[in-house]
Design goal:
single chain; 511 residues; Immunoglobulin-like; Rossmann fold; Helicase, Ruva Protein, domain 3; 4 domains; 20 helices; binds adenosine-5'-diphosphate; binds magnesium ion
Length: 511
């Protein structure tokens, strides 16, 4: 084996070296050069890889030389070197840089790669243009209303759109998923896309009066419909003529609901010349109903009421809820009736890349260099929420450090800030990955989930080595895509940022 290593070839080289690149030169006439160095899979490892920068009248290396102790086959890593530019080069605004690598092979032999050259376009850091930060708005978790900042989910939206537009009335869609997976955003986008003859009506059970949840739900539906007519169609006289009053809603809720839906349809036909009207109720946070029933705030009769509403076939419904939805449906199979179920999951790698790249392009050029974007995608697992948080911090870092491009070391610095120190993420940011919903419908208390996850982050464990008592929790975490099974059955935390955070904050948390 060692003989094989001694004899096989090793040809490390630069990866993705640009022919021209922009650099912002600081007041001390220096800038940081970052290059990626890779070794093909199948090569023998090399050691003491050193970046050689040719000194010229334009640039010379400053400070410690870019260095890697070891480079393994199939690996690509970043090397950083500070360079000083001459007055002349700065005046001209560009400089040629020649680069090569010196490395030691397993045999002990020291070799150098061929020299590669690149053109550095130099600009004074004073001319640095602040990077606009479209992520800051969403790093707190507000649903995405803007179309430009909404990524992925295209196929899902199209499917729901066409089933609503072409199918019969009375359809019910169930969208569920992790907290912060983007369910409300999908609902908002759907609301913006549903056009005539569809009449989208958005409401959230998060806003319901828990003293009288049953009546309030119907009242909320009726009120939301009313607001739609008044604000979107200017029908300010609706209330006097056609609308059920509060007392009527209290005594005969179902009849009142039906009355308001029919009245809306008639009004749109008579006054706006709509031939067809398809009301679509977009109900957010529907799984609260499950919690309210468990907590005794609602009786199970509520679900029968819901069923008879839907069976009136006067509207469609898109119900959004948390990952408890499948258990909710299991508990009330008849009441839910036939539904189209869709789970909202992580973004695909391509969609995640779009979210990270597009909003901060530099004149059509990506700001991500080397493996930095891959690293970001792996750390977030394509979760749109953690991507927005990470990108927000990346842009802040670029602006603070007056950097134009994101390299692996930038990602590493920002990761460190996110998991430790005074601006680290607080535990509640990871709530979506700990519990699915409120304690009344959870399998175990939050602390128990957290202790289990912390242990898994600290010590890779195969599912067969998890104590039997915790097996249901592990299954729940797998179902909710918090965990995945890696090679050898090892349980892995999908969002790398969370695993790093757990490791960095594990004191006392491991239980
Ligand atoms: N499709 C998306 N594109 C971009 N960002 C998204 C998307 N979906 C979710 N997000 C991010 O996740 C956060 C939570 O989204 P939201 O729709 O409120 O999730 P949920 O309703 O599932 O809790 C948003 O503030 C935003 O940062
Ligand atoms: Mg939501």
């Amino acid at each position: 084996n060692s003989e094989h290593v001694l004899s096989s070839a090793s040809s490390p080289d630069f990866v993705g070296l640009a022919a021209r690149e922009h650099f912002y030169v600081q007041d001390d006439q220096t800038f940081l050069l970052t290059v990626s160095v890779g070794l093909p899979a199948g090569d023998a490892p090399v050691e003491s890889v050193q970046l050689l920068v040719g000194s010229s009248s334009e640039v010379r290396p400053m400070g410690p030389a870019g260095f890697l102790r070891q480079l393994r086959p199939g690996e690509a890593r970043e090397v950083v070197q500070r360079l000083k530019v001459s007055d002349l080069a700065l005046g001209v605004g560009q400089a040629g840089i020649s680069l090569s690598l010196r490395y030691r092979r397993a045999s002990g032999l020291v070799e150098e790669t061929a020299v590669r050259s690149m053109e550095a376009i130099l600009e004074p850091a004073r001319k640095f243009v602040t990077v606009a930060n479209p992520y800051s708005r969403y790093s707190g978790g507000t649903p995405v209303e803007e179309r430009d900042m909404f990524f992925g989910r295209r196929e899902l939206l199209e499917r729901i759109y066409s089933e609503i537009s072409d199918g019969p009335l009375g359809q019910c869609f169930l969208l569920y998923g992790q907290k912060r997976s983007g369910k409300s955003s999908v609902l908002r986008q759907l609301e913006h896309r549903l056009h005539h003859p569809n009449l989208p009506i958005y409401l959230s059970l998060g806003a319901i009066d828990t003293n009288e949840p049953e009546r309030s739900f119907i009242q909320l539906c009726i009120d939301s419909l009313y607001q739609k007519l008044v604000f979107d169609f200017d029908m300010t006289d609706v209330l006097e003529e056609h609308w059920p009053g509060q007392r009527q809603v209290a005594t005969s809720p179902i009849a009142s609901f039906r009355k308001s839906v029919l009245a809306s349809a008639r009004l749109l036909q008579a006054r706006k010349n709509w031939r067809l009207v398809r009301p679509v109720f977009l109900v957010d946070e529907f799984t609260y109903v499950f919690e309210y029933i468990r907590e005794g705030l609602l009786t199970p009769a509520f679900m029968r009421q819901w069923k008879s509403l839907l069976e009136s076939r006067t509207f469609d419904a898109v119900l959004v809820g948390q990952d408890t939805m499948p258990r909710f449906k299991e508990a009330y199979p008849n009441e839910f009736g036939v539904t189209h179920d869709e789970r909202i999951s992580y973004l695909s790698a391509a969609e995640a890349r779009e979210l990270a790249e597009q909003p901060i392009m530099l004149q059509g050029e990506s700001r991500y260099k080397g493996n930095s974007l891959d690293r970001l995608i792996r750390l977030t697992a394509g979760s749109p929420f953690y991507l927005q948080i990470f990108c927000d911090r990346l842009v802040q870092h670029l602006n603070r450090q007056r950097l134009v491009f994101i390299t692996e070391s930038v990602v590493k610095d920002v990761l460190r800030q996110l998991v430790t120190g005074h601006v680290a993420l607080s535990a509640d940011k990871f709530d979506p990955l700990i519990t699915a919903a409120g304690e009344s419908v959870a399998l175990a208390p939050r602390a128990q989930y957290l202790a289990l996850l912390t242990r898994l982050a600290l010590r890779p464990t195969a599912s067969r080595d998890v104590p039997a008592g915790e097996a249901p929790l592990v299954q729940d975490l797998l179902d909710r895509e918090v965990l995945e099974r890696g090679s050898g059955g090892l349980l892995l935390i999908r969002v790398g940022l969370f695993a790093e955070w757990l490791r960095a904050n594990s004191v006392g948390g491991a239980g």
